[in-house]
Amino acid sequence: MAKKEENNLLNKLVSFAKRRGFIFQSSEIYGGFSSCYDFGPIGVELKNNIKKVWWNEMINLHDNIVGLDASILMSPKVWAASGHLSAGFSDELVECKKCHHRFRKDLLERNKCPDCGGELMEPRKFNLMMKTFVGPVEEEAAVTYLRAETCQGIYVNFKNVMQSMRMKVPFGIAQIGKSFRNEITPKDFIFRTREFEQMEMQWFCDPKDADKFFEYWLKERMDWYLKLGIKKENIRIKETAKKELAHYAKRAVDIEYKFPFGWKEIEGVHNRGDWDLSNHSKHSKQDLSYTGDDGKKFIPYIIETSGGVERTLFTFLCAGFKEVEGGRTKTTDSTKEIEIMLDLNKKLAPIKVAVLPLVKNKEEITKKAKEIFDMLKIHFVCQYDESGSIGRRYRRQDEIGTPFCVTIDFETLEDDNVTLRDRNTMKQDRIKIEHLSQLLKNELS
Ligand code: GAP
């Protein structure tokens, strides 16, 4: 894709996300706050659905994975032991001598400032941990950090979870939560930000089985994206070269998506070996080894799947965003401009059903529509909308990916049938109100 086209599509997505209530710039009324974003009413539903679908897949569908919600603030000793306070969790920062803009050295294509072409200073190491103080006094003893990855909360709870849940290796612990990194160059809308959420699963296994489980989890994670509608040609895996591996990793494979700005990582599958448990064992002086039923004692190896919630959301937005020149509707000529349709998997769709009275100035119709809305809202996230022409209202729902619209018209008052419209096919069927909930449950499950 040409650079201009890429920017064009990215700009379109940014303004679409704002206009339709998905994503707003943080602190916008004060001119914005760099790299922070707020998820609007439609965006938060999408975000929650992504987390729900991931949680269901990892925890509910696997007997041997359990959940956890560890705190964001932890003892700074955790970060000393994990290696995050040392050079291993630093980026090389370069500064332009002319405009003083700063960049991550590894992301630069040339040894010149990408903004003004100026000469660059010598690189400096820059640690990504976000420092904070616990308590009222800002002194060295009060320093701690906002977590940079959720998994450390899992490692320090390895024994607690294993013992309380009577787990046996191999087993997994999964968690979703916020992480923070003082990124030098947050970039590309919500792709790289300083505050983000991770969905991580840590699989504890016998070292001899680590390679086998690595392949298993890599396939599982790829299949998850494909199942949710990401096209094969837009997703790929990329092995990380040995010399580029993170300080903890024995092996790392990135799952990449073809964004408007190129192929980029959305999730990593890592073999962390015994790095984390050995280091926490050493620093905390606690025995974090495991003894199998056969008496064999070992420090489990960890296979990790680590994805970002915002990057996943961005992936589904890019994948689902469709513009149709001249409009999709062939039956009316009310619109001939570009129509947008968000082709989201039904499980991810922010609003599942829109309830639309054909007209708003006929009380019997709006009353009936509200009754149907009240009946459906117990089961699904629904939206009631009576403003504008019915065609305009259908298009509004298509734009945010609502799979079904239910229209209540004059005939409904006679025969208790409503029109059920499908987002993708635009097919309209007449359905008895008494069958509506069950039919939608079948369609949306
Ligand atoms: N626990 C391993 C770990 O954190 P990572 O490759 O540094 O590994 C995993 O991060 C995932 O977290 C990435 O694939 C990405 O989806 C997300 N992520 C990392 N840094 C991010 C950032 N600055 N903004 C948004 N998402 C980020």
TrEMBL record:
Annotated function: Catalyzes the attachment of glycine to tRNA(Gly).
Q: Which GO terms describe its molecular function?
A: ATP binding; bis(5'-nucleosyl)-tetraphosphatase (asymmetrical) activity; glycine-tRNA ligase activity
- Name the InterPro entries on file: aa-tRNA-synt_IIb, aa-tRNA-synth_II, aa-tRNA-synth_II/BPL/LPL, Anticodon-bd, Anticodon-bd_dom_sf, Gly-tRNA_synthase/POLG2, Gly_tRNA_ligase_bac, GlyRS-like_core
Instruction: Output this protein's name.
Output: Glycine--tRNA ligase
Going by the entry's taxonomy, the superkingdom of the source organism is recorded as Bacteria
GO-annotated biological processes: diadenosine tetraphosphate biosynthetic process; glycyl-tRNA aminoacylation
Assembly with partners or alone: Homodimer.
Organism of origin is: Candidatus Staskawiczbacteria bacterium RIFCSPHIGHO2_01_FULL_36_16
Q: Where is the Aminoacyl-transfer RNA synthetases class-II family profile domain?
A: 11-350
Concerning its family, UniProt says:
Belongs to the class-II aminoacyl-tRNA synthetase family.
Q: Which residues bind ATP?
A: 181-183, 191-196, 265-266, 308-311
Query: Where does the record place it?
Result: Cytoplasm
Assigned EC number: 6.1.1.14
Specify which residues bind substrate according to the UniProt entry for this protein. 104, 149, 196-200, 304-308
Q: Return the PROSITE patterns for the record.
A: AA_TRNA_LIGASE_II
Provide the catalytic activity annotation. tRNA(Gly) + glycine + ATP = glycyl-tRNA(Gly) + AMP + diphosphate
A Pfam family annotated for this UniProt entry: HGTP_anticodon
Keywords on this record? Aminoacyl-tRNA synthetase, ATP-binding, Cytoplasm, Ligase, Nucleotide-binding, Protein biosynthesis
Coiled-coil features, chain-numbered ranges: none
Q: Name one GO cellular component term.
A: microvesicle
